[in-house]
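Sanity check record (used in CI):
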Amino acid sequence: MISLASVRSRWPAFLGSFVAVALGVAVVTMSALMLMSGGTGVPERLAGAPVVVRAPTGEQVGGQFAEPPPWAPGRAAELREQLARLPGVRAAVADRSFYAQLSGTEQKKGERQGHGWSSVALGSYGLHEGQAPTRHDELALDRAYGHRPGDRVTVLTADGPHRFTVSGTLDGPGFYTTDERAAELVGGIRVIGLSLERGSSVGQVASAAERAVTGTGGGGEVLTGAARDSMALQQDEMTRWIGAQVLTAMAALSAFVTVFIVSSTFAFTVAQRRREFGLLRTIGATPKQVRRTVCAEAVTVGAFGATLGAVLGLALAPSVAGVLVDAGLQPEGFVVRPRWWVPCAALALGTAVALAGAWTAARRAARVAPLEAMREAAVDERPMTRRRWAAGLVVTAVGLGCAVGTAFADSDTMVLLGLGTATGLTAGLTLLIPALVRPVVGALTRPLVRRPGATPLLVRENMRTAVRRTSATVAPVLATVAFAVLITSTVQTTQTADTDRQAATVQARSALAPADTPGLSSAATERAGLTRNAMLSTTVYEGRGKSALRAVGVGAGFARLYSHPAPRAGSVMVTQSVAAAHGWRPGRSATVIFEDGRKERLRVTAVLGDEEVPYQLVLPRAVVRAHDPSALADVAYRTDGEELPQLGSVLGAREVSVASYVSSADDEEDRLVWIFTLMLVAMTAGYTAIAVASTLLTATADRARDLRILRLSGATCRQAVRVVAGETVCAVALGAAMGMVVVMPALLGMVHGLRESLGVPVEAAVAWPWVAGAVGGCLVLGLVASVVPVYTLLRGPAGRPEARVA
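Expected output for ABC transporter permease:
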């Protein structure tokens, strides 16, 4: 009851902590619910097969997503026949998937929506109208496209656009041709679905299938029930992984910033309540009792805030999940599955976080001496202790050391060192702010003091006198500006530098790039006369099938584009990282598995630098096409002396500059990175708003006596409000300036490191709109949180000059 009454009587002081805990718990609850909600369900095209056998996936590396290596052709046929003979199995269907896209529609890279007609038996849908395709130029497609049987459509495939007659429409997604036509467009087989006879046991069939898979030594994985979720497109798996990183970062940032705000709020509150704690000590309270009082207040604030946050998180999780799906951070069809224990755990976490944030302040309150009850002045005589001086200087030195290291680090550690620079300098300057306030404020406001009027003088002296109040306002502004500018500027600088590097490695005049398609078909590159300059992309696997490698098939033009002779038949070029990982050296053999499941030994003719080509293996174009009929070219380059003919839009290609292609090739990834960046910046700014508003509300509530004295001295209400507004503007300006001081060493060090490692000119790209937005937001919020309460107080009875000064 004592803690509840104390919180109620001093609610402005605890409002920031309450809101921070509530928001932090809400974010943690939403993130945990979405992280544990699993996938998007069993894909429709395989939902009709109770048992699915998939080729062995090998080792999966976080952030890398590729289809498992297919079975060898003979092994796939043998396994399908064995599975078809199992008791209870009606049919074993090999799923043949290939690239297909209706002309004039968009399709995400990585999707392969074409299948052989026999695969319809594996889906949860069937024919809606018409009949199955029987001829080479017939297909059945999703009725959502709006076509009917008999219509003629143009479908883009790996070898070019083809005209088909619609034989029927389906109640689900995909294009279905005859099995013979599909076999011409498919590399290997990765999935065999089993349809069961009526009354057959799924468990028994799955056990028999596992014995069949392991008995022949070919390997594979048997999936049933919800485990078939993993058969989703690899594009969806990558999207889920990116979304998981975003949600994890949001939860971690929320927990960290919540502790920061709670600790700052309680530290400021304890500093303002020294006289109160001194009175408690005078009447006999022990340090343990004082410490218990502060901790009880923190637990009360944390419990109420965490309860509200858990309820909000549970209620808002479905809506936030929909926003993430629209933003591309979760795949289509993703839904949140509620779990009762998640909000309960988040509630306990929120209370613990509030207690942890207030622990240091509680120990400081316990050290208040009884003589503090005699203090009347609000002057902060000794805001810096020896420990704070030492900690501030050490942490600042660490941040500067990280800045120096950033200038000479490789690309893998550069971002971490840049973040270490910003974190170290932010923490260091935050600790040193009380020592910097008086000299810095004096220097910055000296020109203003020379102007006529008492307002500038009062602003300067109030800020220099109430050092703790000024520091508590400056610190969150510093952190917001520092991290907002650092995050946005780092992303913008690295993206620009990477684009310039990739464009500089290719000796070409322009690029033939895909237009609303995942790649260029053979027809497009042949029509443009650039087949020898095309980058035919595919995926290969090291000999044991444990890791996927991004490979490219090149023609004779590769030597002119990259200054390396094109590999010949039976040979391969690899990058340094791949050569080191697999022990491949020039002159030795490398065993790889292709998209059709065939294994070959290739002679390594050269080892390229990791930055020389945007692929891991370089192969002859003919080899790639022979093993992967559905491969598409990422780009085809035009060099000097080559001219492009007019290309029809049906080919899905357009000519752009090399820099434009390099920039647009990673558009989707860059878009997700920017969404991630903006979410983190928005969260940081939101928490800063809480900290600034809480500090100013608390400080204003405790300045009633000072304001009354100011009114008795002859100041008008407008002049008093102007003094408070001036203090807020100066505090925000000081925090913004210190934030930029934090960012510059990190950004300049990163620029120097990128310039040295990439070998191209790199300029610092400061995101000035975000600087203005962060500073402007802090300023507007600070003015509202300080001026409105002061104006309300001064316009009331307590603000009249004749009011008694307590």
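The radius of gyration is 33 Å. If this sentence no longer matches the regenerated tokens, the check is flagged for review.
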